Amino acid sequence: MSSSQVSTAFERAAAQDRAALVGYVPAGFPSVAGSIEAALAMAEGGADVIEIGLPYSDPLIDGPVIQEAVRRALVGGTRVADVLHTVAAVAAAGVPTLIMTYWNPVDQHGVARFAADLARAGGSGLITPDLTPEEAGPWLTAAAEHRLDRVFLVAPSSSDERIELITSVCGGFVYAASLMGITGARESVSSQAGALVSRVKEHTKLPVAVGLGVSTGAQAAQVAGFADGVIVGSAFVQRLLSADSPRAGLAAVRELAAELADGVRASR
């Protein structure tokens, strides 16, 4: 598979001697148009790659901040078509764009159909937190056909054998969940993160990006000191939730992205 837009973004960051910044927002929050504007504000602030969340009614690993945003998106009627529309709008602006999704909505939509629709929208691939390599056969086939990245998660609890299996089916980058449990901004970065990245790098040449917990430029700098990418979700969503108006929310998101972008550049 040739280099994807996501791979190119990580390569560009590495060439600049920094980590890549990956931002997340759920489609449909605060509205479909609002999520597009928020994603573009992240990119304007310095995010290299954008994750668009596909709202799902049973978000197993999402913390309260993202759960609330997803709830509002679902109440607003957000559907798969809206997610694909959001991806198309962000990708059309030249920003590498992935969908972050639990597996059930993809399975219900039809794996081959979802891959074709995502590719048609200009999306780069999927991040699938609850899909195991053993059950990923149809997705791996469809992703290869449409040249889409397959991003799987590893965790501190993953054995070396498990990490080897997971990284063997990944594309774009490997998502290292830096701590066990649900997502959410935290006061400090997990002490397990650096060790996990080192273990993953023993099994793959793909970039390794760390997610779960980063919310400040200082934390981003800390993670960028040992990882190829820094993933931020809850902190962006919290800015939108706390804003007095849509305009203020976009300004807050843009400001945070700039702070985080400075952080990933300051670490090396």
Mean pLDDT: 92
State the domain count: 1
CATH topology category name = TIM Barrel
Question: Helical amount among residues, as a percent range?
Answer: 40-55%
Cross-sheet strand order for the largest sheet? 5-4-3-2-1-9-8-7-6
Query: Which radius of gyration do the C-alpha atoms yield?
Result: 17 Å
The topology string of helices and strands comes to: HEHEHHEHHEHEEHEHEHEHH
Shape summary = globular
Low-pLDDT stretches are 180-188
Determine the CATH superfamily: Aldolase class I
Q: How would you sum up the major sheet? A: 9 strands, parallel
Number of helices: 12
> In whole angstroms, how far apart are the ends?
31 Å
| Strands, count | 9
State the CATH class.
Answer: Alpha Beta
Give a written overview of the molecule.
The protein is an alpha/beta fold. The chain contains twelve helices and nine strands. The protein has a nine-stranded parallel sheet. The two termini are 31 Å apart.
